[in-house]
Amino acid sequence: MFNRVRVLVLFIVLIFIFSISLAISYAKYENYSGVFEDEGIAIETLNTEDQPKSIFDLQAKSAILVDAGSGQVLFEKNCHDKLMPASVTKVMSLILIMEAIDTGKIKLEDKVDCSEYAAGMGGSQVWLEPGEQMAVDDLLKCVVIGSANDATVALGEHVYGSNEAFVKAMNDKAKKLGMNDTNFVNATGLDIDNHYTSAYDIARMSRELINKHPLIFKYTTVWMDTVRNGEFGLNNTNKLIRFYKGCDGIKTGSTSKALFSLSATAQRNGLRLIAVAMAAPTSKIRNGEVSKLLDHGFANYGSVLVGKKNDVLGTIKVARGVTGRLDCIVPDDVRVLVKKGEEGTVERIIFLEPKIQAPIMKGQKVGEVALKSKDKNLGKYDLVARETIEKASFVRIFQSMFNRWLYIGR
């Protein structure tokens, strides 16, 4: 009897001590701010060095070459000059349409009624009739493959209610993307005063389109297709998807005032590049100079896979959670641009708190991985929670302690 009383008293003391430590832990981590200190840093070596610079004798008035992953500029010529983009404008139109699809606002099978205004666009078109119905999927083919102005406006009106609202949304999105050289007056790129952008901004919106909306490749990779039950043929205006290795998009543009422009993307061995040329004198020169830019990128740079999607790069102790430890993962593949042939000395530095307070939601940011090469920063990427960890109730904590006590007493 006496021994049982001693055990009970000991158990009560243990509960008291645990409650005090729990309160201290709660006070320490209740105000967790998400600022990551240098505790628990892990360093691994991979590689890269300063990027080489090249000068091209381009006839295009403006051009740029960027790494699609990081956005790093590898070459530029007058990249902030404000020029008419012609139908490359439709890259922004497509971003907004793809957002509507990805959020469920519209579906590919939805039928779109063509307005009289959309039917009267002129320029490149698929000759939509007022009142004609066409599925979103087919209209996207017309926009991407055939660069159809009537199809572009019909889609914009379908999503935003009017062409004016669509164009306003395009400009709002441009501001959000930091496109400071841009002003859109229409959704198609038809020549009009005060409608302009730059090679730099085209590269920005092209990155947004291909990185956030991979569905676009369903259309940009098609060489020839048809709509209206095979009665109307479409032929891709971007010839590089057929004649340049690895090219799978994005958009051409040409008018008498804008001349010939192109935003093209290609991927080889995990490296994706975007090359933009604006105001080239002919389509042949435009295509050749974009190819030259891409050739330069693939000849001089490579892509190193630093972390694969869902790779665990660290663990964190969890305070007051139903689980005591949390795996920290990279939500997407992490690649870094390196000088070709020197894939060897990139530092991967992981920043995690030593402990985090429950509850934690799956996908919540819980740390960062910074990439460096010597004294050069190569960017930071989020680390997120692998799973949801709920906050433990007092009853659950007590039950866990009691179960451990019973186990110790055996």
What does this structure look like?
By secondary structure, the protein is an alpha+beta fold. It has two domains: 2-48 and 306-409, D-Ala-D-Ala carboxypeptidase, C-terminal domain (Peptidoglycan synthesis regulatory factor (PBP3), Domain 2), CATH 2.60.410.10; 62-280, Beta-lactamase (3-Layer(aba) Sandwich), CATH 3.40.710. The protein has eleven helices and 18 strands. The protein has helices at 2-29, 90-102, 116-119, 136-144, 149-160, 163-176, 199-212, 217-220, 240-243, 283-300, 394-409; strands at residues 43-45, 62-67, 73-77, 111-113, 133-135, 224-227, 232-235, 247-255, 259-268, 271-280, 301-307, 312-319, 325-329, 334-339, 347-352, 355-357, 365-373, 376-385. A seven-stranded mixed β-sheet has the order 1-15-17-18-13-12-16. Strands 3-2-10-9-8 form a five-stranded antiparallel β-sheet, sandwiched between helices. Strands 4-5 form a two-stranded antiparallel sheet. The longest helix has 28 residues, at 2-29. The chain is globular, with a radius of gyration of 28 Å. The model is unreliable at 20-54 (pLDDT under 50).
Give the overall average pLDDT: 86
Element-level helix/strand string: HEEEHEHEHHHHHEEHEEEHEEEEEEEEH
CATH topology of the largest domain: Beta-lactamase
Report the CATH superfamily of the largest domain: DD-peptidase/beta-lactamase superfamily
Structural class comes to: alpha+beta
Identify the strand order in the major beta sheet: 1-15-17-18-13-12-16
**Strand proportion:** 25-35%
Global outline: globular
Summarize the main sheet: 7 strands, mixed
Low-confidence stretches: 20-54
Q: Helix count?
A: 11
Number of domains in the coordinates? Answer: 2
The CATH class of the largest domain turns out to be Alpha Beta
